[in-house]
Design a protein that fits this description.
With 753 residues, the chain is an alpha+beta fold. The chain contains 15 helices and 20 strands. The protein has helices spanning 18-33, 45-65, 75-112, 117-125, 229-240, 299-337, 351-367, 385-407, 416-450, 456-469, 536-543, 575-585, 633-678, 693-710, 740-752; strands spanning 131-137, 144-149, 163-167, 174-180, 186-192, 207-211, 217-222, 248-251, 267-275, 282-290, 473-479, 485-490, 504-508, 518-523, 529-534, 549-553, 559-562, 590-596, 599-607, 620-626. The strands form four sheets. The protein has a five-stranded antiparallel β-sheet, covered by helices on one side. The chain has a five-stranded antiparallel β-sheet with strand order 7-6-10-9-8, with helices on both faces. A hairpin with a 5-residue loop joins strand 11 (473-479) and strand 12. The two termini are 65 Å apart. InterPro entries: 2C_sensor_his_kinase (IPR050980). It is an enzyme of class 2 (transferase). The chain crosses the membrane at residues 47-65, 301-322, 385-407, 641-662.
């Protein structure tokens, strides 16, 4: 039984209009029973959230994309200088380490035979101009026992022990190395700190120096450093900052360029320093770099405007395509569900809303509450709600695509200093490969020279020590005169049996198989030979010192080593790479930006060795790196635009997912149920899926269904969630408890039976 209507409020009562008063009361009661949208559940909430996120993204894009518009040295130049100096310092540190090993080996020979000191010192310095002078001093370091080259002496107060003292005087930096001997004497050597010949840019007035923290500095290569207190402070600050073990960069104040350059383009001095291991010296590079002028670019503002337009498009499309039609439908649904007169169902731009409104019009006509209404067969028309959502998402994606298309310029060129620094780094890698191969052969030849007539056991121990001290080798073995392996250490040899070609050297065994077999060998006095195979992974790691793709190709343009995934001995397909590799073998340096496979890349080639034991291999190091990888203003703008576009696309995906799962699917299901109800099938209960506007329309549709089944009394404020009068009350019989004891007694009696 329905409850009587409550007292009406003032303004709702019109004399002689009892039916209208009842309808208004039903509307008030119905509204109290309808689900109310909460936070993030309204039909317009996804559009508002997406528009807000796009607005915030516009603010972020304006700030993020405009961060590099200030004047200054391009970051690509400072990055390349840092890598260049680090490579030079690493190479010098490796050279010092090898020299200390040679000096330690000489000290060991002296300890074994002190009488041959002069011969041992002469053997150390023979054909090695890096040694300025070597001598054996007494325990106090005051008198010389034996010496070769220029005289050496210990500074006063030097503690006896294995030490390294930097000596920086003029343009001749040196390192004083001390090795204690077993008889208390000291082996002292002066090592010239030579750096391999570098290709420096004369226009940039680049200078490479060796400095000592808190001490002097020496010019090694490049242009003389002018006497300038500001410049001295810049270099001193960079050298002092390397005490923490990291590369330091300091940039000076911009000034007018030289006469041979554009005077309107200022230049700034950039000093970069890196320590050489722990020997107490620092490599410093000084270069003058053109300063990028501050530019007020329109790209950040354009990106922000595009995103704001996208946010406005989302609001407009969804407002007229979904939000406003749903609100009109809810007003109409409330009127029909409360028995209020209507002027017919509203016609909107949404097809599903029109179908539901048409169903309400049919139900209103059945209730005889409207004089004229659209029938169930009236055309509804409109655009599907999903199309409106997709259109809004497409607007967001178009904004993201517009940012990528207009704010992502390609850099087609590089600063000259970046090209020179990269060229020096690739040359250093080629030198490292050559040092590994040639140095490996030298070490193996020394082992063979010391054990020319030794037995198998002694040679095996010598090879074992060689592999322990050199990670470049994967295996070492003794080969008989006919090529068979007598004994081996390390991993299983890859080289097939057979005679060795000649008396010694570095050999690439074959150009077939899944990996190259590179080995060094030396012949002994009795026809046997020592062989040491190089570890391909060790050689490949040398290529990884430089960013980008580095590979070693032979004279026939086949891939021998590669820092990226590759097939051994695969032919190089790029015509530009083949031409560059051929020029490098002819002695012509090649370092330029070229188009490789459709991309602008910095292509650099350098020969591995033009002389020495590895020269006959005719290998070339080829380095490729896309121009887009460098930290140039255009590249950084492109990366920032890509980030903004990806975030915008993510917002569009969020918008579509939110509407699809929480709005479109329930709306489509409700339209189907409304059409079924309007067609005369009132057996299915219509339940709200979500507590939002669509759920409220579903409740109104259920009210109309109940009115169609039970009559007009079910409209409006009828009680629906609690019991009604007339429900019978039944008294249920109490279930007696189980007789557990009796049950056990029955079971026990059965067991007794």
């Amino acid at each position: 039984m329905n409850h009587p209507p409550p007292p009406v409020r003032a303004g709702l009562h019109r004399p002689g209009d009892g039916q209208g008063e009842l309808a208004r009361w039903r509307l008030i009661s119905l509204e109290k029973q309808l689900p109310q949208p909460r936070l993030l559940t309204g039909v317009g909430t996804p559009a508002l959230v997406a528009a807000l996120l796009l607005t915030l993204l516009a603010v972020f894009a304006f700030a993020y994309l405009g961060r590099d518009s200030e004047a200054g040295v391009p970051r690509a130049v400072t990055d390349s200088q840092r890598d260049f100096v680090r490579a030079v310092a690493r190479g010098l540190d490796s050279s010092v380490a090898r020299s200390r090993e040679e000096l330690a080996r000489t000290a060991g020979a002296y300890d074994a035979r002190p009488a041959g000191a002069a011969t041992q010192l002469a053997a150390l310095t023979r054909d090695q101009p890096k040694w300025r002078g070597v001598g054996v001093l007494d325990a106090g370091g005051k008198s010389t026992v034996a010496a070769v080259g220029q005289p050496v002496a210990l500074p006063p107060g030097t503690a006896a022990g294995r030490i390294a003292l930097p000596v920086v005087e003029g343009n001749d930096p040196r390192l004083l190395l001390v090795e204690p001997l077993s008889d208390g004497r000291l082996l002292v050597a002066e090592l010239n700190l030579h750096i391999r010949t570098l290709r420096l840019d004369p226009k940039a007035k680049q200078a490479v120096l060796i400095a000592v923290p808190g001490g002097g500095r020496s010019l090694v290569q490049g242009a003389p450093v002018p006497a300038d207190p500001a410049l001295d402070g810049l270099i001193t600050g960079a050298v002092g900052a390397t005490s923490g073990g990291s590369t330091a960069t300091r940039t000076g104040a911009p000034a007018a360029g030289p006469a041979d350059r554009d005077p309107t383009a200022p230049i700034a001095p950039v000093t970069t320093a890196d320590a050489v291991g722990k020997v107490g010296v620092v490599v410093v590079s000084l270069v003058y770099v053109p300063v990028t002028a501050a530019a007020v670019t329109r790209e950040p503002l354009l990106a922000a405007l595009v995103l704001l337009l996208g946010a406005g498009a989302v609001l407009l499309i969804l407002q007229f395509g979904l939000v406003r039609p749903m609100r009109l439908l809810l007003v109409h649904a409330k009127a029909v569900a409360s028995g209020n007169p209507t002027q017919g169902p509203p016609r909107t731009a949404n097809a599903q809303v029109n179908r539901i409104a048409s169903a309400f019009g049919t139900l209103a006509a059945q209730q005889r509450t409207t004089p004229a209404g659209r029938g169930p067969d009236d055309p509804t028309g409109g655009v599907p709600a999903g199309l409106a959502v997709v259109t809004a998402v497409v607007a967001v994606l178009l904004a993201a695509g517009g940012i990528l298309a207009t704010l992502a310029p390609h850099e087609d060129d590089l600063p000259a200093q970046v090209v020179r620094d990269s060229e020096n780094q690739v040359a250093a890698v080629a030198g490292a490969v050559d040092d590994t191969l040639d140095g490996g052969y030298t070490k193996l030849a020394l082992v063979g020279a010391d054990n020319r007539t030794a037995g198998t056991g002694q040679l095996r121990r010598a090879l074992d020590r060689l592999l322990d001290d050199n990670r470049r080798f994967r295996s070492g073995y003794l080969v008989s005169a006919n090529g068979g392996v007598v004994t081996s250490v390390g991993r299983t040899p890859l080289r097939p049996g057979g005679p060795l070609p000649g008396e010694g050297g570095v050999v690439l065994h074959d150009v077939q198989g899944r990996l190259p077999i590179v080995y060094a060998y030396t012949q002994l006095a009795d026809g046997r030979s020592l062989v040491a195979e190089f570890d391909v992974r060790y050689l490949t790691r040398l290529l990884e010192r430089v960013d980008g793709r580095l590979r070693v190709v032979d004279v026939d343009q086949r891939d021998i080593l590669d820092s990226a995934g590759y097939l051994a001995f695969e032919q190089v397909s790029s015509r530009q790479v083949r031409t560059a590799a051929a020029e490098a073998l002819s002695g012509k340096p090649y370092a330029r930006v070229a188009e490789v496979d459709g991309d602008h890349e910095l292509l650099i080639t350098a020969p591995v060795a033009l002389e020495g034991s590895a020269a006959h291999l005719e290998w070339t190091v080829v380095a490729e790196r896309p121009v887009t990888d460098y930290a140039l203003p255009g590249n950084e703008m492109r990366q920032g635009a890509l980030l903004v576009a990806v975030v915008a696309a993510g917002i569009g995906l969020l918008l579509f997912s939110w509407y699809y799962f929480f709005q479109l699917r329930p709306l489509r299901n409700l339209a189907r149920e409304a059409a079924t109800l309007a067609g005369g099938d009132s057996s299915r209960v219509i339940s709200p899926r979500w507590h939002d506007d669509i759920g409220a329309v579903a409740v109104c549709l259920e009210v109309c269904r109940q009115a169609a089944v039970h009559g007009e009394q079910r409209l409006g404020g009828a009680a629906r969630l609690r019991g009604t009068e007339g429900m019978p009350t039944a008294i249920m019989t109490k279930v007696p408890p189980r007789r557990k004891a009796g049950s056990r007694g029955v079971r026990s009696s059965r067991r007794g039976d």
